[in-house]
Write a structure and sequence with these properties.
Elements lengths: L9 E2 L2 H4 L8 E2 L3 H8 L18 H9 L3 H9 L5 H7 L3 H5 L11 H10 L19 E5 L3 H11 L4 E5 L8 H4 L8 H12 L4 E3 L10 H7 L2 E4 L5 E2 L12 E3 H9 L9 E5 L3 H12 L4 E5 L13 H12 L3 E3 L2 E9 L2 E13 L7 E4 L5 E4 L2 E4 L3 E2 L6 H7 L21 E3 L10 H18 L22 H12 L1
Parallel strand pairs: 3-4, 3-6, 4-5, 6-18, 8-16, 9-10, 9-16, 10-11
Antiparallel strand pairs: 1-2, 7-17, 12-13, 13-14, 13-15
Helix pairs in contact: 2-3, 2-7, 3-4, 3-7, 4-7, 5-7, 8-16, 12-13, 13-14
Bound molecules: flavin-adenine dinucleotide (FAD) and iron/sulfur cluster.
Flavin-adenine dinucleotide binds next to α8, α9, α12, α13 and α16.
Length: 484
């Protein structure tokens, strides 16, 4: 039986890192650490089953173990053009299912990927793409997040002419304007996005479809369209007092900070919510100078979004190291104001009432009012997709789930012929790797729809399901079992 331990990853001191946005919490592996960690892998590839993008994980971990990080990068690029980004912020469910979990710890798959990707400043040193020729088809991509960018990459390298429209002044979507740069440095994003656009993608920034260019015009001008529009319409709670000046939705707060604004949050900040976004908003507040930051969530810690997973535990650990306080099982019911500013968040403690097989239901105990003083309130209470750019005619044609997700067929095509979709607006996982998976599916779907499969270069087509079919629940079940 293998007994040797996972090579520990080193971290920066929380006291230093909270002073700046420029220190990543995790310090990457050295050469020897990466080789040693890689060589623990037995290559069973069970982990692939938990990877939405179906990466050949055993293959690329082994390449690093034999001192060939270039091959690691090449294997990742088969399905995913963001090894350094995903190597930092992936939800890494593959590790939750790794067979070595109880034998020294799961292989540090994410850190190995980051190590290999960071070895190359320019991927053209290792990714040698076959010469392409224009195959006579054009595709418009709406949205420059990971999903739109992945689709742009895999279509472009097949010789499709891709034009990408992005409403913001920067590419990257939530990688660039959601995830703060202490977790995902901007130069890392620029390197990977730059490699994608250098494949001949025409990019229009500051161009909102539905406003600057009409959707109908796009439909007429291109042979197919990919929607990678994400979820950018904030959902606010509407708690009394929400009309104050010192409250903001977390995505606006993180976007403005990522684009360089220095928002004055004061000393005391309350963040409402419990997922990725709440944690990032709280840690961003600390870096902006807040001294007391509370994350208020209406359910128990085990009910928080993303749990059970190693990623959710690591995220909470890092947040607590930075002295953020979690306040579980509470219902904020009033933002008490002085003038146009919130000065106090009033809340009730909840009882958690079991409900069949579902999550326990929070029921506020209204007999006792609790409160906390506050200078700034951030609501990380979710967001939804904004389909208004489609106009009435196409909006009526687009089939959505009751939760507002775009419904697609097995090829990624929506109910509007020739319009494909993926990413946060379409899947329920709402993470980067699933956004990439959707793009991989749609790339194959688009090539089939365009009737050009006889012209494609199979060597650079993304794989969908490799040896084991992707199972979204497999990792969660494995992790939950291990916590018992
Ligand atoms: C704060 C935060 C932290 C996160 N942390 C993680 C993490 O650690 N790990 C992880 O895996 N996932 C994380 N996620 C989730 C992840 O970022 C998303 O799942 C992923 O970015 C979704 O990709 P996407 O391409 O579908 O959409 P997005 O990244 O949202 O990109 C969509 C793009 O479309 C553009 N757009 C929308 N409408 C139009 C239009 N009409 N015209 C032109 N452009 C348009 C938007 O401006 C945006 O740039 C996080 C999300 C947030 C908000
Ligand atoms: S499950 Fe673990 S040991 Fe097996 S291939 Fe994946 S990383 Fe290696």
């Amino acid at each position: 039986m293998l007994k040797f331990e996972r090579v520990k990853i080193k971290s920066e001191d929380p006291e230093d890192r909270v002073k700046t946005f420029d220190i990543e919490p995790v310090i990457g592996y050295t050469d020897n650490e990466a080789y040693a960690e890689g060589s623990r892998c037995i290559g069973c590839n069970i982990c692939t089953q938990a990877c939405p993008a179906s990466l050949d994980i055993g293959g690329y971990v082994n390449s690093t173990a034999v001192h060939d990080p270039g091959q690691t990068v090449k294997i990742v690029f088969e399905n995913l053009p963001f090894p350094a980004i995903i190597g930092r912020v992936c939800t890494h469910l593959c590790e939750d299912i790794c067979v070595l979990y109880d034998t020294g710890g799961p292989i540090a798959i994410r850190h190995i990927k980051r190590y290999a990707a960071d070895k190359f400043q320019d991927y053209s040193e290792v990714i040698h793409l076959p010469k392409k020729k224009f195959i006579g088809k054009t595709v418009a991509i709406i949205g420059g997040g990971p999903s739109g960018l992945s689709a742009a990459y895999y279509l472009s390298i097949q010789g499709v002419k891709v034009t990408l429209y992005e409403a913001l002044p920067v590419l990257g979507g939530f990688m660039r304007v959601g995830i703060p740069k202490y977790r995902l440095p901007h130069d890392v994003i620029e390197k990977e996005v730059g490699f994608i656009t250098s494949q001949g993608v025409d990019v229009y920034l500051n161009t909102k479809i539905g406003q600057d260019v009409q959707f109908e015009e796009i439909l007429k001008s291109y042979d197919a369209v990919y929607l990678g529009i994400g979820n950018h319409k904030p959902r606010m709670t509407g708690t009394p007092g929400s009309d104050a000046q010192n409250i903001m939705h977390a995505t606006e707060f993180l976007r403005r900070t990522s684009l360089g604004e220095n928002i004055n949050v004061g000393k005391n900040v309350v963040v409402i919510g419990g997922g990725f976004t709440a944690n990032d908003a709280s840690r961003t507040s600390i870096r902006l100078g807040a001294e007391n930051v509370y994350i208020m969530y209406r359910r128990r810690d085990v009910d928080r979004p993303g749990y059970p997973s190693m990623n959710a535990d690591e995220e909470m650990e890092e947040t607590m190291e930075e002295k953020v306080t979690y306040v579980w099982e509470v219902t904020p019911f009033e933002y008490a104001k002085e003038g146009d500013r919130i000065v106090e968040v009033k809340y009730w403690q909840n009882d958690m009432v079991p409900e069949g097989r579902g999550r326990a239901k929070p029921v506020p105990k209204k007999d006792k009012i609790l409160s906390v003083n506050v200078d700034f309130v951030i609501e990380a209470t979710g967001q939804e997709s904004d389909y208004s750019f489609l106009g009435d005619q196409y909006m009526r044609m687009l089939k959505l789930t009751p939760q507002g997700q775009t419904i697609t067929d097995q090829n990624g095509m929506t109910s509007i012929p020739g319009v494909f979709s993926g990413g946060d607006s379409t899947n329920f996982s709402r993470d980067l790797i699933s956004a990439v998976r959707d793009a991989d599916t749609a790339v194959l779907g688009i090539l089939k729809y365009l009737n050009v499969m006889d012209q494609v270069n199979e060597e650079v087509l993304p794989f969908l399901d490799r040896w084991k079919k992707f199972s979204p629940m497999s990792a969660k079940m494995a992790y939950a079992e291990r916590q018992k």
